Amino acid sequence: MVDRCICFNKKFCDLKLLIDKYKLNNSDELRKYFLFGENCKFCIPYIEMIFETGRTEYKPVFNDNER
């Protein structure tokens, strides 16, 4: 399962706490509190899904070009 931003070793559940605490609506707002997606960028789709689903653990998602 994917449950964190690997580059910054930050769990998605911790990001969800920030999202809920500050009533954030999107990843741009979240970036004001935590830097992510600046290195490998693999966490970006998962963090977007936190806003869509509220979940913080996911099966790996691959871009068709990455397989």
Give a topology summary:
Elements: E1 4-5, E2 10-11, H1 12-21, H2 27-30, H3 44-53
Antiparallel strand pairs: 1-2
Shape: globular
Low-confidence stretches: none
Judged by helices, strands and strand pairing, the structural class is mainly alpha
* Strand content bin: 5-15%
Classify the helix fraction into a percent range.
25-40%
Strands ordered across the widest β-sheet = 1-2
Order of helices and strands: EEHHH
Cα Rg:
11 Å
Please describe the biggest sheet, giving its number of strands, its sense, and whether it closes into a barrel: 2 strands, antiparallel
Number of helices: 3
| Count of distinct strands | 2
What is the arithmetic mean of pLDDT? Answer: 90
Terminal-residue CA separation:
18 Å
Brief write-up:
The chain is mainly alpha-helical and 67 residues long. The chain is built from 3 helices and 2 strands, in the order E-E-H-H-H.
Brief descriptors of the model:
mainly alpha, 6% strand, 67 residues, two-stranded antiparallel ribbon, single chain, 3 helices
Q: Describe it for me?
A:
The chain is mostly helical and 67 residues long. It is 36% helix and 6% strand. The protein has three helices and two strands, in the order ββααα. The protein has helices at residues 12-21, 27-30, 44-53; strands at residues 4-5, 10-11. A two-stranded antiparallel ribbon has the order 1-2. A hairpin with a 4-residue loop joins β1 (4-5) and β2 (10-11). α1 (12-21) crosses α3. The longest helix is centred in the N-terminal third of the chain and has 10 residues, at 12-21. The protein starts with a strand and ends in a 14-residue tail after the last helix. The model has no long low-confidence stretch (mean pLDDT 90).
